[in-house]
Design goal:
Two copies of one chain form a homodimer.
Chain A (H helix, E strand, L loop, with lengths): L16 H15 L10 E2 L1 H8 L3 H14 L2 E4 L3 E4 L4 H25 L2 H5 L1 H14 L2 H19 L2 H16 L8 H19 L3 H22 L4
Helix pairs in contact in A: 1-3, 4-7, 4-8, 4-10, 6-7, 6-9, 7-8, 9-10
Chain A binds a DNA duplex through α3.
DNA sequence: CATTGGTATATGGTATGCCAAATCTGGTTG
DNA sequence: CAACCAGATTTGGCATACCATATACCAATG
């Protein structure tokens, strides 16, 4: 018997103002180069609520969430400030990234399908093209996309959630990162080796390679990125 | 010349009501056995604000923060619910724990002082006494204290922050965890070996031992803990 | 002119009230 | 008796007004 019910989409449950304000603010903050010297880092509740056309209450809740995530800092009777992470904090984040992606790679060796692993090749190829383009931004995004893919293969939702937050911050310093063609080339080689290890289902090797690869980035940032 | 200035302590800047409400709620929630079958899992804003003697606004902000941390879930026009993590989520948490503590152990091999590492022996000894007491609660707390100590040795503040949040949830299921004397004994042996590896500054070994040790816990929880 | 103390303003924190949707309750109806 | 409907109640979302304090500005003072 044919299903006679008309197809009903649930009415777009318009998200709460808080959620929408949160998304808008997060997009705005992560979209700007906060590490530029002339970046505007101060915000005001009343100004923002007026510009969003909502009251301060849901806006404050969105700001509180961003505060907890470390993107802004709300100071009583002073203002709301977009947070620039210190170099030490960025290095700590990359360390966490290394640990979690390494674990994901190990997990992927048992849980990921051959097909899913094979999909990584495309990402490396895109990455390779960015190398030609020699643009830091695209390079960085393609690089992060590859690592997010490995993390997704591990199937641990919490790791994905944590690292998504980290990537936001690491991404923000890319304009402060020296672009070296050699480093990109070596990076691509690393990626190809990682894929090989995953395909061989060699958990120890994959975990080690991923960790070492990200620690290389950490060392690079430590040496060549100048923030604070 | 004597310093004639009177000694002035900065006035204790009383924290905001939001912060205090957050702390009180968090303590209350983590202090109760939310996995007990007859646990009260529903809260109400107005009831809580009345009992705390504050208005709903700061209370709501505290609840929103707990919501983001995953301790409660605020549902519009339904209520506020204390969140019971699913078994899969707990397992994911333990996996993250394993990855981050393993990384901390590796870091500790280079950054921790001999003295700091030596301090771990005391924790194992306390742990050993808890074995005699055969109480799940004390065992669990002493166990977590040991692992937090290793994480502290790594010196990565972000890892500490993330794992502190995880331990809250893992701690909450301890009453659902079967207490096995054999497991405790093997656990203590593991701990002593981990200390040895740290003292030998063998980063690879320490990292591996810590990871394997926590994965054992994960497997134990997977097999013997019944929640959901 | 430099210093100092008061005052106005800016700005995040808090209290309160209303709104809309979900739920509950009691009675009506077939 | 079951199904159902309407109004009352519950409850989180939101807007608004007021509060307290950090800062800026200005006048009084030497």
């Amino acid at each position: 018997m044919i299903d006679m019910r008309i197809s009903i989409e649930p009415i777009v449950e318009s998200q709460s103002l808080k959620v929408r304000a949160y998304a808008a603010l997060k997009a705005a903050i992560t979209g700007m180069n906060i590490y530029d010297d002339n970046a505007q880092l101060k915000l005001e509740e009343r100004d923002l609520s007026a510009r969003f056309g909502i009251s301060r209450t849901p806006l404050r809740e969105a700001l509180a969430q961003l505060d907890q995530e470390g993107l802004v800092k709300v100071v009583a009777r002073r203002g709301i400030f977009i947070v620039r992470k210190t170099k030490a904090e960025i290095l700590d984040m990359i360390t966490v990234w290394a640990a979690l992606e390494s674990m994901s790679a190990k997990l992927a060796c048992t849980v990921a399908s051959d097909q899913a692993i094979a999909g990584l090749h495309d990402l490396v190829d895109q990455f390779d093209q960015c190398e030609v383009a020699l643009k830091m931004g695209e390079y960085s995004d393609a690089n992060i996309a590859f690592h997010q893919a490995i993390i997704a293969l591990g199937g641990n939702a919490l790791i994905q959630q944590i690292t998504d937050g980290l990537f936001l911050h690491v991404r923000a310093i890319r304009n402060r990162t020296i672009f070296e063609k050699d480093r990109v080339k070596r990076s691509i080689e690393d990626h190809r080796e990682i894929i090989k290890a995953l395909e061989a289902r060699d958990a120890n090797l994959a975990g080690r390679l991923v960790c070492e690869h990200t620690i290389k980035l950490k060392n690079h940032v430590e040496k060549y990125v100048d923030i604070d």
